[in-house]
Amino acid sequence: MAALARENICLTKPQCEDAERMYYEKLSGAKAAPESLSAQIERARQHIKNSLECVDGLAQQVGGEDMALASKLSALELENRQLKKLTDDLKKMVMGLEGRVASLEGGKKAAPAAAAAKEEDDDDVDLFGSEDEEEDEEKARITAERLKAYAEKKSKKPALIAKTSVLFDVKPWDDETDMNEMLKAVKTIEKDGLTWGANKLVPVGYGINKLQIMCVVEDEKVSLEELSEQIEAFEDYVQSVDIAAMNKI
């Protein structure tokens, strides 16, 4: 209604227009025709209609301003709620930081107390020996004696010697090779850790026999490859040497 009061409204404009028209007709000498009752009623209705339209326009204008004001108020309320939430979050964060600072300060205060307690415990230690230390020394001496006795006993026990049983196939050049001389030549090979065993002649074909001879060797002392080369060195009798079988003992 305040906006309506500020507007310049002319509610008597139709009457003014009629009076102006009659004035100019009088000046011109024209005689105004008497107005009928129906014309007067129609003119009054038109005046009322014009007045109502003017009032409706003002009401719509006032309503638009009220809606704009209500929208601004809603926006302010929303902004106020957001600011309040942000303030609450900041308050919680500050309280959490204060709690952490307080706990850290408490830990720093507890550290000197723990150090002081440790120093007191160190003061209680007997630096000049005690009965507990004497007992520990006695236990250490007994343990050392037992370990020494075990080591001596273990050193006296004979070590296990790894041995291998080997069967050689010694092949001659032909059927005219003297197999007895071949056997004698092979057995002339003597080594520490080498022991010759049983032997026999095995037919190969076309009247040719091969010599199978067994031996036992100590793995750390005798090389089978070197022994095979020594047997092959008897070129007058031996064509080739192969290991037919071998077993660990």
TrEMBL record:
Stretches the record annotates as Disordered: 112-137
Domain Elongation factor 1 beta central acidic region eukaryote: from-to ranges: 127-154
A GO cellular component annotation in the UniProt record: cytosol
GO molecular function: guanyl-nucleotide exchange factor activity; translation elongation factor activity
InterPro entries per the UniProt record, alphabetical: eEF-1beta-like_sf, EF-1_beta_acid_region_euk, EF1B_bsu/dsu, EF1B_bsu/dsu_GNE, Transl_elong_EF1B/ribsomal_bS6, Transl_elong_EF1B_B/D_CS
Transmembrane parts of this sequence: none
Pfam family, one: EF1_GNE
Record keyword Hydrolase present: no
Keywords annotated in UniProt: Elongation factor, Protein biosynthesis
Quaternary organization: EF-1 is composed of 4 subunits: alpha, beta, delta, and gamma.
Stated family: Belongs to the EF-1-beta/EF-1-delta family.
Name of the protein described by the UniProt record: Elongation factor 1-delta
